[in-house]
Specification:
heterodimer; A: about 140 residues; mainly alpha; two-stranded antiparallel ribbon; 2 strands; flat; B: about 750 residues; about 75% helix
Chain lengths: ~140, ~750
């Protein structure tokens, strides 16, 4: 499929969508969003890119096999669970690092964010694995 | 680097051995070392381990022999591409076997039991490119794990009687078990497990097949350690189960039959490894027979022979491996004059053989005298077992001569491919020397033997072992078996031919043949069953699924779940009607169209309408996810459809259309009323209250949905994303395979 409009638009859209997916991932803990949705948005960004430029260019731009993302995500999720165990708590217990910022605001970073990042990568990897293998040209 | 890894690995198991050695004074002093870890609360299962005389004896065998054989295998398998894999299976086995002998909880025992079967499966099938190795591995796994399941049932029966899986607690309720109606079933089931593992007749056939494994594995698993697991289990439970008539009958019968089968089959074999495998059967039968008799003296003999056999048989297996390694042959008739090129091997072989034959001043002699004494002494042992044992001792003597002498002396007919490395020699020489050392000073072993025997008997006894017992009936029997052995040795060619003709004529009556028939039947049955249930037609699957659900709902839930009054519809708001119609429209269009792509898009409309209802009811997370999932689904389905041939359209038979219509409409109506009725019930809010109250203080998040996903229920999510990943890999594999197949010429 070679459509100039699609190709031009998707160059911009993929950037926006990927940024948006990260935005969704980060805000997920306090507002609608999260790793699952974020991963889906990222996957649809790449799917769009794939429709416009073909499966090989997606693989080239990704740099990694989509299955690697699955492994990475599962690894991150599992490792985030181990963090709590160092504090002699059950597997996957959330551990938080709370920093005081100025004007009484706080920055809270915790192992659930890492877990959510893992979810993000697994969802992205899963969707991309399926889409790319289906888009693959049969030679 | 890779070649030297073995020394690091051997250090690990040598350290273990030393640890167990260090426990000797403590345990032989009558103490038991206990270790407990909490595990499951319901059903209550504690990870409890106990080190007493019996488990110490076996732990020493497992770790000590393991270390020596590990060093041996570094020479035997040098340069093998999968050496790393071999070592990991080897240690996997060693750990499981140690767990088995140390566990003090029946469930734990069962788990380690099965783990040893699995390790054995991998090790037998190590040369997985050969079909014989694969089928032998499967055979061993099927036989032993079937027995393992029987054993588990036996354990559960014991639990039903006593209310505990802890072995000490079970031993304490001995009287209760003995009087219970479930005693006999439990005994039979547990004995089945032990017999399959320890290759007792009629389950013995897997052991000779298992000789497909590399020789170090045969020496370690299939003669020195794993096959003793059944004996160990019976010995461990002897205080509870032992001593009854049923126990005596089962064990002495199976033991005697195994003993005779082993000797008979060994005499007609010419492959050295198979001879040793059948002789292992003989030894295992002997051990079971002794357990069946169960007198203190018989238990002494059992403990001594357990070690004796591990030493000489382990050594002989390794020697068989060295000879095979050097000459490329294991055929005993074809080999002779090896002494000239393999002096150390010949020496070790001679010493191990002499111990096997039970010659005086060897460890084997001590064991043999004890065995004969306990057979003659026991009131219940019959002349059958005495004769059977004497005959098998003759066979042992004859084959010891064959292995220890005939291959090493005479004209040198075989060409050595290469010399024997030090790594290969260490283990057999150590085994041989230990056999001599314990033969000359058996009392060095007496304390440990006493502790082990006490553990088996359930009360403490003293053991003294001596080199010479004086002129008595056992010595007379020893003399008879030695003379008989020499006679058999001189007539071995004639006897071998005779036995082989018997074996070839009765091949269709053997348990091995029965196993193959059973396997064939099982395969046929599962093929039939799979064909029936897994027809491959999506239409059939959905019809079964929906049809049975409809039947269940109509039969059981009519009054409770399927009540819908028309007045209920008044509560539906106008925009809800609009969304509802949108959904129905999408569904109808999807059902009506003949173009697949249109159907996909119509289903997308349906999905979007569902997502809109989430928006209406204030669930933005769900809505967002639903929108994205719908989008993805449409993309994926469109991609799938683009791969189908252009003319692929939904064409169906009128009957099928009618059935589909009836099923889907009925199912839709039933589901609607089900959901409707669910909503009419009061909602249990305790969980949602908990989440909304604790989301911020405990999990630092205001989005409850996300907090549940990544914190409160994170383990569920971890499971789900794992499934997701596995599904993706599955799809990847399926599509790739299809592409590969279509690419192949």
């Amino acid at each position: 499929m070679t459509s100039l409009i699609l190709r031009t638009a998707s160059r911009f859209l993929i950037t926006l969508l990927l940024l948006y997916s990260i935005f969704l991932l980060l805000r997920g803990h306090n507002a609608p969003g999260g790793g699952f949705v974020g991963g889906l948005v990222a996957a649809s960004a790449w799917a769009l890119y794939g429709i416009a430029f073909g499966e090989t260019s997606v693989r080239k731009s990704l740099g990694l096999e989509p299955q690697t993302f699955i492994a990475l995500g599962l690894g991150l999720a599992a490792v985030s669970g181990l963090v709590g165990m160092f504090g002699k708590k059950a597997f996957l217990t959330g551990t938080w690092l709370i920093m005081d910022l100025e004007q009484g605001r706080k920055l809270e970073i915790g192992s659930p964010l890492v877990f959510d990042l893992g979810v993000y990568f697994v969802v992205l990897g899963t969707a991309l694995t399926i889409i790319l293998i289906l888009e693959e040209e049969e030679s | 680097m890779k070649r030297h890894a073995i020394w690091l690995l051997a250090t690990i198991s040598a350290t273990l051995t030393l640890y167990f050695f260090a426990q000797l004074p403590l345990i032989t002093g009558g103490n038991i070392l206990l270790q407990e870890f909490a595990w499951l609360s319901t059903p209550k299962i504690v990870l409890s381990f106990a080190l007493d005389g019996l488990s110490l004896l076996l732990s020493l065998l497992i770790s000590g022999i393991g270390t020596l054989i590990l060093i041996y295998s570094s020479g035997y398998l040098r340069g093998d591409k999968y050496l790393g894999r071999f070592y990991s299976f080897f240690f996997f086995f060693m750990a499981s076997m140690l767990g088995l002998v140390l566990s003090s909880n029946l469930i734990l025992t069962f788990i380690f039991w099965e783990l040893t079967s699995i390790a054995s499966f991998f090790l037998i099938g190590f040369e997985s490119h050969r079909v014989e190795a694969r089928s032998a591995a499967t055979q061993a796994l099927l036989v032993t794990s079937a027995g393992g399941l029987a054993m588990l049932m036996g354990f559960i029966l014991l639990f039903l009687i006593t209310g505990s899986y802890e072995i000490p607690a079970i031993i304490e309720s001995r009287e209760k078990i003995r009087g219970h109606a479930l005693y006999l079933p439990a005994l039979i089931l547990i004995v089945l497990g032990a017999f399959t593992k320890s290759a007792q007749f009629p389950f013995h056939f897997w052991l000779p097949s298992a000789m497909q494994a590399p020789t170090p594995v045969s020496a370690y698993l299939h003669s020195a350690t794993m096959v003793k697991a059944g004996i160990f289990l019976l010995a461990r439970l002897n205080p509870v189960l032992g001593g009854s008539d049923a126990w005596f009958m089962l064990l002495t019968t199976a033991g005697t039959l195994t003993l005779l089968t082993g000797s008979f089959m060994a005499l007609q074999q010419r492959d050295m490894k198979l001879v040793l495998a059948y002789l292992t059967l003989t030894a295992l039968g002997l051990l079971v027979l002794l357990l069946g008799i169960g007198s203190p003296m018989a238990i002494n003999a059992l403990v001594a022979y357990l070690v004796i056999h591990a030493l000489y048989k382990g050594g002989l297996f390794l020697i068989a491996g060295i000879i095979y390694h050097a000459t490329g042959s294991r055929h005993m008739n074809g080999l002779s004059g090896l002494f000239r090129t393999m002096k150390w091997t010949a020496l070790a072989a001679a010493l191990c053989s002499l111990s096997m034959a039970g010659m005086p001043f060897f460890f084997g002699f001590v064991g043999k005298e004890l065995i004969y004494a306990s057979l003659l002494d026991s009131d219940s042992a019959s002349w059958v077992s005495v004769v059977a044992t004497t005959v098998s001792m003759m066979a042992l003597t004859a084959l010891a001569l064959l292995i220890g002498l005939s291959m090493f002396f005479g004209p040198n007919t075989t060409q050595n491919r290469h010399g024997t490395s030090l790594n290969l020699l260490i283990a057999p020489v150590v085994f041989a020397l230990l056999g001599v050392a314990f033969g000359l000073a058996p009392n060095a072993f007496a304390k440990l033997a006493g502790a082990a025997s006490s553990a088996i008997l359930g009360h403490s006894i003293e053991v003294s072992l001596s080199v010479w017992h004086g002129f008595n009936p056992p010595l007379a029997l020893s003399f008879i078996s030695a003379v008989g052995g020499f006679l058999i040795y001189y007539q071995r060619h004639r006897l071998g031919t005779l036995l082989r003709s018997i074996v070839s004529r009765t091949a269709s009556l053997t348990p091995r043949h029965g196993y193959h028939i059973l396997l064939k039947l099982l395969k046929m049955l599962s093929t039939k069953q799979t064909r029936f249930f897994q027809s491959g037609s999506l239409f059939a699957y959905l019809s079964w699924l929906l049809g049975s659900l409809i039947i269940i709902l109509l039969t059981f839930g009519r009054e409770k779940w399927l009540n819908v009054a028309l007045s209920d519809f008044r509560s539906i708001l106008y925009y809800e009607w609009v969304l509802g119609f949108l959904m129905i429209l999408g569904a109808l269009n999807a059902a009506k169209t003949r173009l697949p792509l249109v159907a996909v898009v119509s289903l997308g409309v349906l999905g979007y309408a569902i997502a809109l209802t989430y928006v209406l009811y204030g669930a933005p997370d769900l809505a967002m996810t639903q929108f994205l999932v719908e989008t993805m689904t449409v993309i994926v389905l469109a991609l799938v459809l683009s791969k189908l041939p252009e003319h692929a359209r939904v064409v169906s038979h009128p009957f099928r259309t009618a059935l589909t219509l009836v099923l889907s409409v009925t199912f839709g109506i039933l589901m609607t009323s089900l959901v409707w009725n669910t909503l009419k019930r009061p909602l249990d809010r305790s969980l949602s209250d908990f989440f909304s109250n604790n989301s911020v203080p405990l999990a630092h998040g205001r989005n409850i949905v996300n907090v549940i996903l990544v914190d409160f229920r994170a383990l569920d999510t971890l499971g789900e994303i794992t499934v997701l990943g596995v599904a993706a890999l599955g799809i990847f594999g399926l599509v790739r395979i299809k592409t590969e197949v279509s690419r192949a010429p």
